[in-house]
Specification:
By secondary structure, the chain is an all-alpha fold. It folds into two domains: about 1-55; about 55-275, no CATH class. The protein contains nine helices and no strands. It has helices at about 1-25, 30-55, 70-90, 95-110, 115-120, 130-160, 175, 190-215, 230-275. This is Membrane protein. Keywords: Membrane, Transmembrane, Transmembrane helix. It comes from Salipiger pallidus.
């Protein structure tokens, strides 16, 4: 019990630090903004602690199937950290910020071709932005997109090479998929593959849809100010992380469907041998 409390507490602290990181590293923020960030960090920490301190999950999927959630958290954490360091370099120049911005600029320039996700994010720049602010949008987009691609690639290797999620033990379907309703009707194998395909399709489409939706919404409501460092950091992080998370979930569901199909095949073969 004590071990579980410590692990849940560490996860809660890390989640709170993730939410508060841009506000802590960047000096330009108002008192109201700091209070809002502190409240969000506290709520995220409490939800994380309650979720992991219990015996069974209620919302978080694949809680007992590492390293799925760990990889997603590390990817988001590193993305926010790198983008924060780049933004901090505007007021506190340093070698780390310059190196990260150089990588982001290189990737952003390479992916900035017509109809690419990076080009669509750059089109969100308004006419009153300076060339430097547009360059920051491109470098942030390139670096965050690179982080998401690397995360998906590593997860595919973990699934195929390291035989996730059964390498370390049996996979408990109902514990790791608490939001999946087994009584909804239909074959569970068909539903798993359908949900997996939907998640993968959405993951591929969202990098293109999010900039388009933001562009259309800016004509009706006040657009997000990408000149604000914290807004830019969270916008780019969400734009890159959400599609990657959906694709990873789709790949995980397909893997679970393959395991169930393989188990059914063995059960049917064993039943036929018993009949013979």
């Amino acid at each position: 019990m004590i071990h579980r409390l410590i692990k849940a507490g560490v996860r809660a602290v890390l989640m709170a630090f993730l939410i508060a990181m841009p506000a802590l590293f960047l000096s330009e923020h108002s008192a109201d903004q700091a209070q809002m960030v502190a409240l969000l960090a506290l709520i995220a920490a409490m939800l994380t602690f309650v979720e992991y301190v219990g015996d069974y999950p209620s919302i978080i999927e694949f809680r007992d199937a590492p390293p799925f959630n760990r990889m997603r958290f590390i990817a988001l954490f590193l993305t926010v950290l790198m983008l924060t360091l780049i933004s901090r370099g505007e007021t506190h120049p340093g070698m780390v910020a310059a190196a990260l911005e150089g990588i982001g600029r290189f990737v952003g320039d390479a992916l900035d071709f017509p109809y690419s996700p990076v080009r669509l994010m750059c089109l969100l720049a308004t006419g009153d932005m300076t060339p430097r602010e547009i360059e920051l949008i491109r470098s942030h987009a390139g670096l965050s997109y690179l982080a998401s691609l690397l995360t998906m690639g590593v997860f595919l290797l973990v699934v195929r090479v390291l035989n996730w999620p059964i390498r370390t033990g049996a996979f408990n379907f109902w514990v790791n998929l608490p939001l999946f309703d087994p009584t909804a009707g239909g074959d569970i194998l068909y539903r798993l593959k359908r949900d997996a395909h939907v998640n993968v399709a959405l993951g591929f489409l969202l990098p293109f849809l999010i900039p388009a939706v933001m562009k259309m919404a800016s004509a009706m409501i006040d657009p997000l100010s990408l000149t604000d460092p914290q807004t830019l950091i969270w916008t780019m992080s969400a734009w890159a992380f959400l599609p990657a998370s959906l694709i990873m979930r789709g790949v995980a569901l397909l893997r679970i469907a393959d395991l169930i199909e393989e188990k059914r095949r063995r059960a049917y073969a064993q039943a036929e041998l018993q009949i013979i």
